[in-house]
Amino acid sequence: AMGKKKEEKNLRGFMRFLYNKEEKSILGRNSASWGRILIFYMFYYAFLAALFAISMTIVLGTLDPDVPRFQTRLQAPGISVQPKLNTKTERTSEIIFKQSDAGSYQKYVDTLTDFLAPYSKAKQVDLTDCPLNGSVKMNQAYSKDSPPPVCKFDIDNLGPCKQPPYGYDKGQPCILVKVNRAVGNADSNAPPLKDVLMARNRPYNPKRLYISCYDATSGNQTNLNTAAGVSANTVYYPEDNGMPFTYYPYYGLNLQPEYRSPLVAVQFMNVKRNVEVRVRCKAYALNIVDSKRMSTGYFTFTLQVNE
Known about the structure:
Layout: H1 2-18, E1 19-20, E2 25-26, H2 31-61, E3 79-82, E4 94-98, H3 102-116, E5 174-179, H4 194-199, E6 208-215, H5 222-225, E7 234-237, E8 242-244, E9 264-268, E10 277-284, E11 298-306
Parallel strand pairs: 4-11
Antiparallel strand pairs: 1-2, 3-5, 5-9, 6-8, 6-10, 7-9, 10-11
Transmembrane segments: 38-63
Family: Belongs to the X(+)/potassium ATPases subunit beta family.
Main location: membrane
């Protein structure tokens, strides 16, 4: 009985706290007290909102809407490779399949098909036909009203790597390589590293940005090319082996919302069967830094073609 009376007393005390008829207070405060505290918090939060709005206005007023102030690692463009599956780390992936088993490579075929979908001719009808040996001038004043041209990329230039099954049915797989987008970061006067390319039997054109893929395992070049140090069995499309500077510099999605990154297709024609090959693809231009510490300028993946 005593416990029940205590509970009733506590309940009456709580109800009196919620609303006290004698003092005409709610939650311990009368109307004047509630009015003062509401006015205080109204001005307090209005001040905070105004401070936030002024701060954002000042910061946004210092930013260029077209070019990011900081690009950090993107100041040195890297490359990415498709199909990109089973990623274990940021810069590695695996392409492992059995030539006689279509099911083992279908996921790679589907990934490449999805990746190439935006490059269909139907989705590029409004883009510009650009001269392959030209380049956009950096010093032109582009704006939303006068944007830089967005060049078409004709996937017919990718040869047999333009359509399924991308050579996987023959055990001659294709990969697609593109340089990651970095605003304003290309120079038509930046030649590739000629000596490195020539050492791999690659042609040289100073108006091209080059991709070169090779076996990254020391002393194991024969697994990829059958002749150490020679890339005759690694074929590149477009046939002139490089990306034209027509597509550079990139001005950002604000000015080029329909931009298509140029691609280089690489087909490995004579991979040694049932052997894991560490393939490394590099982009060659003066503004692309080859840095293992920062993992920029190259992409490494595992390629294994089983019988």
